What we know:
Layout: H1 6-16, H2 22-38, H3 42-54, H4 59-75, H5 84-90, H6 96-105, H7 131-140, H8 144-156, H9 160-175, H10 182-187, E1 193-195, H11 201-220, H12 225-233, H13 267-282, E2 289-301, E3 305-318, H14 326-335, E4 351-353, E5 363-365, E6 368-372, E7 374-377, H15 387-392, E8 394-397, E9 406-410, E10 415-419, E11 422-430, E12 437-439, E13 447-453, H16 454-464, E14 467-478, E15 487-495
Antiparallel strand pairs: 1-12, 2-3, 2-13, 3-6, 3-14, 4-9, 5-6, 7-8, 9-10, 10-11, 11-13, 14-15
Amino acid sequence: MDKPSLDQELFLLFSRLTWVSGIVREKACVAIADLIINSPQSDIIQQKLLNWIKVQKLESIAVIGLLVFCRIQITDNNFKFLPLEEFNSAINKPSILSVLLLNELFPNNIIATDFKKLHLSTAPSNFDIPSFFTKYSSNFLPPIYTKYAKGIEIEKRIPFIRQWAYEWQQFLEALGKNPSSKSLDFWGRQNYEHYITFDAELSEVYRSAYLRTLAWAVTLGAISEKEAKIFAAETCPIDLGLWRIAAASKPSCWPKVEELEGQIDTIPAQIWNQVEKAWQQQLSQDNDWIIAEASGRVYESGNTVAYDLEIFGLFQSCNGTKIPNFEEIAKWYSHKNFVPPPISDNIKLEGYIDVFPSNFIEETFGDWSVLPATIPTYPNTVPRWQYWRLMKNIWLPNPCFGAEMLKFYCSNDALIIQDGEDIFAKWFDWTDGLGEKISANLLPATGQYLLIRRDKIKEIEEEINSVFCWVCRLTVYNRKYDGEPYEKFTDYSQYGATGIVRP
């Protein structure tokens, strides 16, 4: 068989950029980027990719071609792209998001934006919002789009949703398409194994129309250019910082289950025994880093049973004999203390967090006073191509422990958190159980963890007269048959807490 020609290989790779699965799109971006970096025909392949961008009919699809170039920049920061003029001439469907990405690729160039050219005229007075648009806007896109659209409409007093629907309708007419919900039934059957992140063609129509409507709102003077860029950043399918981080291995102390025939009920005991050993390992003087937070899959059997473990690091002091409800602590830890990302149009997870935000004070449960060692955050983008990072959260050390404002940024293997010049903590994740699909209502079979320097833990213990401990939650998912929702059971334990009343 003859070897495929370059054009044939590129046709196959480029076709994967519009595959319905986000993971396939991401892998195609990486493969094309590697090919451009390493091929002696690099300039030719770049030009062919620009030609592919040029023929796209939807703004959000054209952006995927630009993301290939962003991946090249992540992999080789010294790579020489074709001139900016070549990119500008190739983008027949410009958008606010494409401007953001070009700014990343060409940071030394001023890229002017004419917002009037990024949208249609205002919807005519006799235009009625199609019922299909309203019914399925939160199915083909994450519900956050509709939430923001309603917020803009109410706060800015403009018919944002009506204009969004108008842009959507004009796209469908230009494409010669009739809207259909069949793809939702095929790709997203929630109680069965299904694609957790998928973008049907109609998803891209909704998304491209949304980008256009943001530009329309800027032209009207209803929202600022900066506000529009912040909203547009959330439509990016990948965070350019997180994209840099390669998945790590599970920590060596993560529980490993030995399944015994007919003895499934011994698995929780096995897990708790190994968590106890992991805690003792943390106390070892040879250990320079302490697990301050972790979560992930421990064990699963077919499509009927799964076990997830969460570790919440706390600084705890005792004020009496009343033992707290650990379930309440876990819920508080998981949801109360989110740190929002810096308010910007940045499409990289990086920035600073304040040292003493008021919402990170001690909380009382029973006769315990506790302070979380870590807090979850999230990027300005909504990186659906790395959906597991959204569903597991990304964690930082509690900013009230820093001597200075904590700086965080993505390296090639971790999210690094610095206190001044010192590395304070490192966040990792693993993807051993990752696939395109997810089973029913389970979390992804992946995991993540945050390490804080041992000496920092000791300093904090002494400073606030507390001890570092873990409160852990083991969640068991169980069902008899495929197609049923899982039943969920939880168990809790703690390691390292003191019963000695604080003086």
